[in-house]
Amino acid sequence: MLATSDRFPDKDVVIGVRVGEKRLAIHKDLVRTAGTVRAEIAGTQLEARWDDKLDTARVLQRVGGVDRWEPADFLDSMWFAWYAFYPNTQVRQ
Q1: How far apart are CA 58 and CA 48, in angstroms?
Q2: Cβ-contact 74, 59 below 8 angstroms
Q3: How far apart are alpha carbons 28 and 13 in whole angstroms?
Q4: Which residue did the predictor score with more confidence, 82 or 6?
Q5: What's the pLDDT tens digit per position in 19-75?
Q6: pLDDT score at 1
Q7: Beta partners for 64?
Q8: Is 75 strand, coil or helix?
Q9: Own/partner pairs for 58-62, CB < 8 Å, 24+ apart?
Q10: Closest CA to 60 of 33, 32, 85, 36
C-alpha cells in the first residue's frame, strides 16, 4: 500500500527536491506567490526561484563557501505521487 498524506490536496503540484538521501517538497504556488523561497536540507542551502518568462520555478543549491549557485536535482510532481515515493519528505510551506 502506498503512503498517503493530507498535508496538501493530492493533486496539488509541489516541487520535489532531492539532496543526497534527503527529500523536500515545496508547494509550487508558494514559489509563484513569493518569487523566491529559501530552504535548507541535508546542510545544503536551496532557493526556489519563480521564472515569469517560463511560468515555472527553478531550484538552485549553494555550492561551497562562496556565493555560487548551481541547479539542484528537482522536479514538479503532484503531491500524492511525490509522497508515495518519498514519505519521509520534509515540507516547506
Answers
A1: 6
A2: yes
A3: 6
A4: 82
A5: 999 999 999 999 999 999 999 999 999 999 999 999 999 999 999 867 899 999 999
A6: 65
A7: none
A8: strand
A9: 59/15, 59/17, 59/26, 61/19
A10: 36
